[in-house]
Amino acid sequence: MSKILVIAEHLNGKLNPSTARAVSAATAIKAETIDVLVLSDKVDAIAKEAAKIQGISRVFTVERAENAHPLASMLAPQIAKAAANYSHVFVPSTTFGKDVAPRAAALLGVAQISDVMSAEGSHTFKRPIYAGNAIITVEADPSQTVVATIRTASWPTAADNANSAPIEALDLDVALPTHTRFVELKQGKSDRPDLQSASRVVSGGRGVGSKENFEIIYKFADKIGAAVGASRAAVDAGYVPNELQVGQTGKIIAPELYIAIGISGAIQHLTGIKDAGTIVAINKDAEAPIFEVADIGLVGDLFKLIPELEQAIG
Fold first, then answer.
1. How far is CA 74 from CA 98, 109, 129, 146, in A?
2. pTM of the predicted structure, to 2 decimals
3. Which of 62, 209, 248, 311 gets the most CB atoms within 10 Å of its CB?
4. Running DSSP on this structure, what letter comes out for residue 223?
């Protein structure tokens, strides 16, 4: 039977929802055991959050000063050591997961499986290739530990359980490297919902026209309580910072509602929203590719349509 270790992603003492999505992937395999590993310098609050996720057996914690920041060089040796008795190690396919999982896989001497979007069996998975234009089936060697990043947009968030799973401190005898040190973390600060976990997202593209004009996107997003995203064209043009980029080379998201404003719909962008619930497109070009995937399309000037929508919302 499969025993799966899910690596918890967290920041500033809070568990990222991506962890619960990785647990959903583990649950799909019908594993005998699903444990969560929390690596931090202060584990208590994070571990208590993780313990509420439905489907997990235990939460293991490793509290060390070196775990204050998510440095892959520090975390990977601990993950590899903790994974000794597990058949699978699952990590969210986020910036965090894409950083740490390859190092952990290398230390375990196995090849990593990226962006798992479905499980056909305990060692058979499906993942996207060619910018999402094709889906490939990958079969892992049952004799080796499976290290996989989980495409969070393809999995639901595991529900909270009424009873919390037991929490146990783990003592890992592993030497950590000394050649890496944390300097600082630079990230955009916003009161808006997180782009990767928001249920509603409003994105703007090149059609918005300028950084100043992008205020109409921010205003509309705030009106409906949505996160803000952007196409690569808008990011490259300097309208918004790159952490807002949605698409193949940006963030892969799956909100319940996605509103694309002034976005033509290049395949790289569509890859990032293929799992969205309802897609609404606003573009003055009736032939824009975005309309081929949109559930609702509005053809017209965004600077006229958005104020009308805001007025209709009230």
1. 15, 18, 30, 21
2. 0.83
3. 62
4. H
